[in-house]
Specification:
globular, two-stranded antiparallel sheet, 8-stranded mixed beta sheet, single chain, mainly beta, 195 residues
Amino acid sequence: QTAGPYVHIGLAPQQAGFDIFEKNFDNVLVSPQSKGERIRVECRVFDGLPTPVRDALIEIWQANAAGRYAHPGDKQDKAADPHFHGWGRGCTDFDTGLCTFDTVKPGAVVGRNGRLMAPHINLWIVARGINIGLNTRMYFSDEEEANANDPVLNGIEWEVRRKTLIGQREASASQVVYRFDIYLQGPEETVFFDI
C-alpha cells in the first residue's frame, strides 16, 4: 500500500482544499521570539526521469539554534527554546513542485556514540508510489568543517553520494534560503537512511 494519492487529505487537508482540523500542522517552525538565524528551506522532490513530484508530503524535525531538540528525551545541557517547535509538515506545491519551511539554522548535536554531528535537518518524505516513508537529512553547504567531521556523512562511502545531502545556501535581499533537491531515483539519487 502506498502513501498516496490521498496523502494530502489525511495528513495535510488544507493543501487539498479541506478545512477539517481545528489546528493544521504547517511548515512554520518559528515564532517572532525564536532564537537563532532565520532561514527558509526550499525542497523539491524529483522522480527518476527527473520530473517534479507535485504531490509529496515532507516532514522535518531538527534541533534548535543551540543544538537541542524540543523533546523531553533530549537531556543535553543546552538551552531549550520554548518559542521553537522543532517539527513541521509541508507539501510540494501542485503547480511548482516546491515545498518550503520557515525555521532557524540548527546547532550541532551529540550523536549516539558521543560524537558531535554537524548541524542538519531530518526529513521524511511520502508520496504516491512510495511504499514506505523515506528518511534523509539535509546538511548545510556553509558548514564545511563540521560536515567533514560528521560521523553520518563520513559513513557514506562515496563523496559524490555525500553531496546529495548538502543544502545549498543562497542569500536574497530578504532572507537566507537553503535549496535542497531530493531525487528518488536515478544517477543523482539522494541518500536515504533505514531507520
